[in-house]
Amino acid sequence: MNASIEFVTPRIESRLPQVGTTIFTVMSGLALQHGAVNLGQGFPDFDCDPKLVDAVDQAMRSGLNQYPPMTGVPALREGIAAKIEALYGHRYDPGSEITVTAGATQAILTAILATVHPGDEVIVLEPSYDSYEPNIVLAGGKAVHVPLDAGTFRPNFGAIAAALSPRTRAILVNTPHNPSATVWTAEDMRRLAELLRPTNVLVIADEVYEHMVYDGAQHESVARNPELAARSFIVSSFGKTYHVTGWKVGYLAAPATLTTEFRKVHQFNVFTVNTPMQHALAAYMADPRPHLELPAFYQRKRDLFRAGLAKTRFKLLPSEGSYFQCVDYSAISDASEIDFCQWLTREVGVAAIPLSVFYRGGFEQRIARFCFAKKDETLALAIERLARI
Ligand SMILES: Cc1ncc(COP(=O)(O)O)c(C=O)c1O
Mutate which of 135, 237, 322 to test ligand 1's pocket (most atoms within 8 Å of Cβ)? Predict the structure, then answer.
């Protein structure tokens, strides 16, 4: 080989030119560098139930290590259908209406790729989870941003109605909501159903925090509203429910006609999701107690964290659901949210996420998001540091 020849990697035009390193990676890196308590990225710092790990071990040792059916292990799809029916009163057929996915992230991308054609519009309520917009762009669609009401983060149905157009293909609804920790009510769902009645608009319902709703309220799954269920893809995640975010197993529930299209993309996207985890989850979810006890488990942590924060100079926003707690820091600093969160990580030793990153235009409200899915001692250490400000 001639050493003087330089082989050149062809330049490519980015499909996602706006996307860089996510703030979650940046803040986690900064937290590590400064020994900060990481309340930034949303994942537990405690382990899952050892029974779940034993069930994976058992599945692997009993030879359940090859490709499962494309749509998911039948026992798991049956378990998911039974759970949805028990909780929300809507029966999905495990054969034609439930699909096991590689986490909620893949389910959302696949639902968008399966339904959004180039030029279609998809309504995204802001602030929003960061994968929605790039997913829509990859499908050739256009994200139409509609802000949730400032201050309360409640859906503004007048604004949603104004954003609907003949090109609207879908609306993404996330309840309980990341990052604001608000929860949609039955009345919100009724109004959404009424608004969409004369349209062909689909709903992609991101319900990954379905088992984290507090103070006796119930999770308003779109499955509870038959009119919405008929036009909805429901997405959920075992990662959130069973403290195994790294397993990346989730699911999609949708009427058969929508599921058929979803599976066409799923088949050539991931094809199947890992077998032993699916068998383990099927065995584990036969007992409903872990998901039924989750609201109390996280409500206790939320209350512990809020009681500690009440002694600091942060102003607490409500946390009705999810495992997030937003705080207003305007009494402490008038720095931008990104600058404040970086300062908090470096100088105070607690990592948080700026709310502005959940807005495409980087809207500033002096609000930061903490994740309280942490051991009590982690929360206590964070509070001790935050109280010094
Ligand atoms: C609102 C929302 N949707 C989806 C996901 C992704 O879930 P999964 O890890 O199952 O892909 C997350 C994770 O943070 C989330 O907060």
Answer: 237
Q: What is the pLDDT of residue 87?
A: 98
Written as one letter, the residue type at 24 is: F
Q: Which of 237, 304, 298 is nearest to 101 (CA)?
A: 237
Q: What is the pTM of this model?
A: 0.97
Residue 243: HSE in the Cβ half-sphere, 13 Å Cα cutoff:
19
**CA dist., res. 197 & res. 162, Å (int):** 15
Where on the phi/psi map is residue 72: left (φ > 0), alpha (ψ -120 to 50), or beta? left
Q: Are 117 and 168 in contact (CB under 8 A)?
A: no
The answer to whether 185 and 220 are in contact (CB under 8 A) is yes
Burial class (CB in 10 A: 0-12, 13-18, 19+), 299: middle
Does residue 176 have its Cβ closer than 6 Å to ligand 1? no
- Helix, coil or strand: residue 368: strand
128 Cβ closer than 6 Å to some ligand 1 atom: no
Q: What spacing in Å lies between the alpha carbon of 371 and ligand 1's midpoint? A: 13
User: Which atom of ligand 1 is found nearest the CA of 206?
Assistant: 3
- Nearest residue to 188 (alpha-carbon basis) of 282, 125, 262, 118: 125
pLDDT digits (tens, 9 = 90+) for 179-231: 999 999 999 999 999 999 999 999 999 999 999 999 999 999 999 999 999 99
Question: How large is the average pLDDT for residues 346-365?
Answer: 95
Average pLDDT across the chain, whole number:
97
Backbone dihedral region for residue 67 (phi beyond 0: left; psi -120 to 50: alpha; all else: beta):
beta
Q: Where are the alpha helices (DSSP H) in 62-131?
A: 74-88, 103-115
